[in-house]
Give the backbone structure.
Amino acid sequence: MARTVFRPIASLLATGLSLATLSLAAMARPAWADEALEKPVSKLVTAVRYGKDDLAIKNLDGESQGAVLLGPEWTKGTPDQRKEFVSLFHKLFAAIAFPKIRDNFKNLSTMAYEPAKPAGDRAPLTSTIVIDHPLKKEEWKVRYDMHKTGEGWKVVDVTVLGTGAPSFLEEIRDQQVKKLFAQMGGWDGLLKVMRERLTQVRARK
């Protein structure tokens, strides 16, 4: 069972519906550009691109991601359980997803943002991304769900618009986390499987 943990991450990224679409290209910034919202995306991408995965993770809002992935069970976990879940999830994501993202960066052409409309501490940031692959030029419209924390804006979730596909967190939640949480009997079992999966992933490097 441990071998299947978060496998959808790899499949999402392999199809190109991934955080690779977070890339920024050199471009003129329009007058309405919101640097506070765009900056964490830029920092995330730059860090991943150059193999600085620990710095990249700092631009993700793990608390908000945990709330999406575990729903009502999130607040039932102890502070230590929630902290370990975020740490394991980010380490698994970095180990499985970031290498695939780096490979996709070489084909990124441009990225243009639309004006953001923050509502309190939440904001959807939409962009159009052009992937200039040698065999096929692709264009994606992507929404980044952002959350303003005490450390500034951070990325929570990513959705490729117009495909009918769920966001990447919704996919992982529905296909893996919810099922594992039930099958493994709650928090302790889920964390145990995640630890085992991380050990397996690292052993293959």
